[in-house]
């Protein structure tokens, strides 16, 4: 991990801040060797570090304000000295290599756009989420950064997702699919139909056609493109379904002696399945298209999830993902005519 600036971790963002955030920072430093700088109230963060006998082990950068989980995009303007704003400023200044936050998604996206700015040619940033498919994760984007988009923006989302899949997941020539209500080209609303036409004609994209909701975990493509509204609904529906399935499975396996015996015999496979479907194991979502690496951890992240997010942010920084995204957009973006 030598040679790269530390990860700026928003210590005040998230449902479990600052306790689990600081615990995750300690875990990332001690077990994964990821350099961290915590951004937040020095008194509060110092007290949390002391609980792990880590006082003085991780640097702290002061912030004067905190974005609550209930605050939306406008909070980025109302709170210019928030912990997430200061973290972004550290990246922009070169004192940090990436930002990690479990705070309000709307607040993180708005602050990132304001402080780090979009890369040259990027029309809208997109949140990319890895779905637990085999043999490697499938990238879903946009998962909530931009609710209303034009078809041309979905094409650019595809390029963002391809750049991420190539760099972070080492997928060669990623297959791209458009999320809609049917496999046929003419299925979907006006946005989906026009986007299908543009994606099919776009140079540099291995577009394989439409995918449906039941394809999200099938691994039929490497990148799934949609608008932020649809992507966020699809993602949360899938997460809820997985939680429900595990809850039902737990009840079934605890329902009798034979079931408990069967669970014991299959405990390794069940443990592997749970780990593969655990959102915290993937480190969080990545906000693509900005002049800096931004990882958004789940709002309810525990220390394990925060540590995984820091490892992901460090990996993306070392892989120069932002640079790769910028290079791909530069070769595909056509400036809009002014007349």
From TrEMBL:
Enzyme class: transferase
Pathway(s) where this gene product acts: Lipid metabolism; phospholipid metabolism
InterPro entries: FA_synthesis, Phospholipid_synth_PlsX-like
Main location class: cytoplasm
Keyword Ribonucleoprotein: no
SUPFAM superfamilies cross-referenced by the UniProt entry: Isocitrate/Isopropylmalate dehydrogenase-like
EC number(s) given by UniProt: 2.3.1.274
Gene3D superfamilies: Isopropylmalate Dehydrogenase
Subcellular location: Cytoplasm
Pfam families tied to this protein: FA_synthesis (PF02504)
Role summary: Catalyzes the reversible formation of acyl-phosphate (acyl-PO(4)) from acyl-[acyl-carrier-protein] (acyl-ACP). This enzyme utilizes acyl-ACP as fatty acyl donor, but not acyl-CoA.
HAMAP family per UniProt: PlsX
Family: Belongs to the PlsX family.
Assembly behavior: Homodimer. Probably interacts with PlsY.
NCBIfam families: plsX (TIGR00182)
Protein name: Phosphate acyltransferase
Taxonomic source organism: Sphaerisporangium corydalis
